[in-house]
UniProtKB/TrEMBL annotation:
SUPFAM superfamilies: NAD(P)-binding Rossmann-fold domains
UniProt protein name: NmrA-like domain-containing protein
Domain NmrA-like positions: 6-249
Species the sequence originates in: Penicillium chermesinum
Superkingdom of the source species: Eukaryota
Length: 322
């Protein structure tokens, strides 16, 4: 018997959203009970003409114009009959998820996947993380069935540039700053695999009302530099940022008091995974996450070394280039 799971996604034109759509569309044969997905993308009216929206349509995704801050009743109407609602919304629009969750509850959806998709940490370390937890609080107050999916840091943001510039075409944010002693392990995933992991997770009753940590490998920054040198034959240049400097950077951003901006989000991320070591399987277990690798032993995405080979062979795509 085959099961067709109806999914609605907000943020499908973005990087994480594109991976989720690709993963859900690619799962034939990977899921139990021959499950597959029917995908509807809720796209802001102002984004309907974007190439990323056209690309969704070309991949068979039903595109529906929707403004989360618009009519509640209309949003409920759109979500009627949907089983899973997924958010991969931009971090500065997270609060709009309140409207999405309210509509999902009223429409009777069976699983809500709030926008997490990042590194693991306790509360009080990263404002961005805390904003996501506040949405989860709201979801839980609604008693809306949910699944949180965190994936660690993307490979695509973890690789330093090399002196020849041969990797520059694929790197959106070269990772040449080494935090602390560079020996803190951090969980990493290729952004292209997020959707494959999501497909497994959202079709599995065991992950309902759970947080799942779905990452591929752990690496320290020093190990990444060594791997880059092995693949490229070039030693990346590095800038050291001590634990004390990172703490001072975080404190400065917080004192500036202008809320969450990209600089604060980045420093808090780097301090959390690069100095504190929050983004580890051990920390995730402590925080109550279910481990993806325990649910699906042997189901692994691309290795970091595969991605480095792609970069070296001009086969890597630069994130956010669409
Ligand atoms: N793990 C990591 O290393 C990592 C790296 C980057 C991001 N992330 C996380 O991944 C999540 C998604 O980030 P991303 O970088 O993938 O996103 P992104 O590429 O910036 O895309 C954001 C998406 O949100 C949509 N959006 C923006 N404002 C909206 C609004 N008001 N209403 C509805 N949709 C709106 C955009 O649609 P339009 O086409 O309409 O603009 C777009 O589809 C974030 O939570 C972020 O923290 C994690």
């Amino acid at each position: 018997m085959s099961a067709r799971i109806k999914v609605a996604i907000v943020g499908a034109t973005g990087e994480t959203g594109r991976s989720v759509v690709d993963g859900l569309l690619a799962v034939d044969g990977l899921l139990a009970a021959d499950a597959s997905f029917e995908i509807m993308a809720l796209v802001r009216p102002s984004s309907l003409e974007k190439p990323a929206t056209a690309s969704l349509k070309a991949r068979g995704v039903k595109v529906v114009p929707a403004e989360l801050q618009g009519s509640h009743d209309q949003l409920v109407h759109i979500l009627k009959g949907i089983e899973v609602v997924i958010s991969t919304i931009h971090y500065q629009a997270l609060s709009d998820e309140i409207f999405l969750a309210n509509a999902a509850k009223a429409a009777g959806i069976q699983r809500y996947v709030p926008c997490f998709w990042a590194t693991v940490a306790p509360r009080g370390i990263m404002q961005l993380r805390d904003d996501k937890e506040a949405i989860l609080d709201h979801v839980q107050r609604l008693r809306l069935p949910y699944t949180v999916i965190d994936v660690g840091w993307w490979f695509q943001l973890a690789v330093p540039r090399i002196p020849s510039g041969c990797f520059d075409y694929g790197l959106v944010a070269p990772a040449n700053s080494v935090f602390g002693d560079g020996n803190v392990p951090s969980a990493l995933t290729d952004v292209r695999d997020i959707g494959l992991y999501a497909a497994k997770i959202i079709s599995d009753p065991r992950t309902l009302n759970k947080k799942v940590f779905a990452f591929t490998e752990t690496w320290t920054q020093n190990q990444i530099f060594e791997a880059v040198e092995r693949v490229s034959g070039e030693r990346p240049e590095s800038t050291k940022a001590s634990a004390e400097e990172m703490e001072a950077n975080v404190a400065r951003c917080r004192q500036a008091g202008s809320g969450l901006n990209q600089e604060r989000a980045q420093f808090e991320y780097y301090h959390s995974w690069g100095v504190r070591g929050d983004n580890s399987p051990e920390c995730a277990k402590y925080l109550g996450y279910v481990a993806f690798e325990e649910l699906y032993p042997g189901f692994k995405g691309r290795r970091l070394t595969d991605y480095l080979e792609d970069l070296a062979n001009n086969k890597a795509a630069k994130p956010y280039s669409q």
